[in-house]
Amino acid sequence: MSPTDLYPTRRFDEPRLIYRTEDPAVWGSAADGPLAQQHLDGHTQHGFTPVEQLLTPAELAAAQNEIEQLLHDPSLAGDERVVRERTTDEVRSVFDVHKISPFFAAMIRDDRIAGVARQILGSDVYVHQSRINYKPGFGGAPFEWHSDFETWHAEDGMPRMRAVSLSLAMTENYHFNGSLMIMPGSHQTFVSCIGETPADNHKASLVKQEIGTPDQASLRLLADKYGIHQFTGPAGSAVWFDSNCMHGSNGNITPFPRSNLFIVFNAIDNSLVEPFAADRPRPEYLGSRDWQVLN
Amino acid sequence: MSPTDLYPTRRFDEPRLIYRTEDPAVWGSAADGPLAQQHLDGHTQHGFTPVEQLLTPAELAAAQNEIEQLLHDPSLAGDERVVRERTTDEVRSVFDVHKISPFFAAMIRDDRIAGVARQILGSDVYVHQSRINYKPGFGGAPFEWHSDFETWHAEDGMPRMRAVSLSLAMTENYHFNGSLMIMPGSHQTFVSCIGETPADNHKASLVKQEIGTPDQASLRLLADKYGIHQFTGPAGSAVWFDSNCMHGSNGNITPFPRSNLFIVFNAIDNSLVEPFAADRPRPEYLGSRDWQVLN
């Protein structure tokens, strides 16, 4: 077992709510980087920071082209880092894009990306996980409500809440095509989930999350207290969000697909230890143990 | 077989698009009733007319109370007019509420409701179908894209596009709890669907629509041409929409349920004949053959 566990989960018979008192959402200051004080204050309060236009039109076009290449890359055909929809066999996610693609490896080192991650976390950072998500039209599946940190803590051994995620839109996010929903302020509460982690839980949970899913009473309480914010915007827009935000997305019956690039940055001082509620860590592409500082 | 079929469907091997040339969306005039000319023009153009507040707060409270009574009415326990979710057994719809409930029977005769229906259809009207829809939180199912008229024509024998529906919100409609989506202007195009109607198709289609579902190429074409409008608003708000609007709704993972009252008015001159693409008509509560003019 690891150091003091501030966020026990999958260990009790009943769910519980644990206040986040030790770990701020913002560890750096306005002097450290691209974001102004008001944005840092907003991040502390809501747990997220939207960015209207993170990429220039030319950068966006290049990124979309790179994604198209990855989707049809024959060398990735049987790769475990490619996850498919249960019913249609369409690609749902491609992991490790910052390693697979030199293009994305360079892109995420930009000051607008790695620089903001360093500023929010007040630390050198590395990539804990990266992926492209595809939510196809005509029946793309929902992602149930969850805190990413709950999974990373329980199954990857991330000790503290000192990680931040970037969701970068590669298609337009409408209200109706399964766009990201966050309960603003929910990052301040840790929902301790019930149930033991089965062996190799990630194989099931990437397709449909079962374990590490908050109970309905806790979700109702958080939703009543915080409400739900839904993120819309054109391709190239983005949102930074704290590792403990309660978030999810509805299914998508419209013809309009939704895809985004998702990168998780972790503070180097918050590198992984043994999982807090699983027998062994998930595979490298889900929770990296190769903490190369981004320069 | 019935009179000339302007809207053949479930009869060809390939889907086809048929322009609506004979039946206007608005048959009456501003002189006939509550709606002003600009609203009638909007209805002609978009196929729908939103109403910010159809019910007063007191009327709304009474209607919500009546729905609560119906939900727990022991005399309706085994009634075929009560349809349940496949997975959770929760009530999804209660049909025939204008017959079951004296409260709703009186409410729909109000000039703000029956009066508007008469104005839009330029005719005396009767109720073709009425129901309460419940979309529970935490996994309420989607309604796939469809035109109601396609079903009413094929399975009920409604000859022409001279019917209008009222969707009256009984809970707040957010963007994220499965609210109604319509492709504005889509009422001008009839999508002829493929597939033969199986016997007693309604038993399956009320839970998950399979037959009478437009093909993806047609949906993509209509969505690209018309876009998608999503209706949000507080309980008590409403939307009138044409029988041939292409509409649907996403699933709902949020804790916030959605319920609405749905009433279909048909022009008395458009009373049902034999079904155009089914062996026998659906049950009375789905497509009424008891055309009592509303006074």
Automatic annotation (TrEMBL), chains A, B:
SUPFAM superfamilies on file: Clavaminate synthase-like
Keyword Metal-binding found: yes
This protein's name: Ectoine hydroxylase
InterPro entries: EctD, Phytyl_CoA_dOase-like
UniProt subunit comment: Homodimer.
Taxonomic placement: Bacteria, Bacillati, Actinomycetota, Actinomycetes, Glycomycetales
Function according to Swiss-Prot or TrEMBL: Involved in the biosynthesis of 5-hydroxyectoine, called compatible solute, which helps organisms to survive extreme osmotic stress by acting as a highly soluble organic osmolyte. Catalyzes the 2-oxoglutarate-dependent selective hydroxylation of L-ectoine to yield (4S,5S)-5-hydroxyectoine.
Swiss-Prot/TrEMBL cofactor(s): Fe(2+)
Alphabetical keyword list: Dioxygenase, Iron, Metal-binding, Oxidoreductase
EC number from the UniProt entry: 1.14.11.55
MF GO annotations: oxidoreductase activity
Source organism superkingdom: Bacteria
Organism from which the protein derives: Glycomyces mayteni
Family matches, as PANTHER family: ECTOINE DIOXYGENASE, PHYTANOYL-COA DIOXYGENASE DOMAIN CONTAINING 1
Catalysis performed (reactions): L-ectoine + 2-oxoglutarate + O2 = 5-hydroxyectoine + succinate + CO2
Family listed: Belongs to the PhyH family. EctD subfamily.
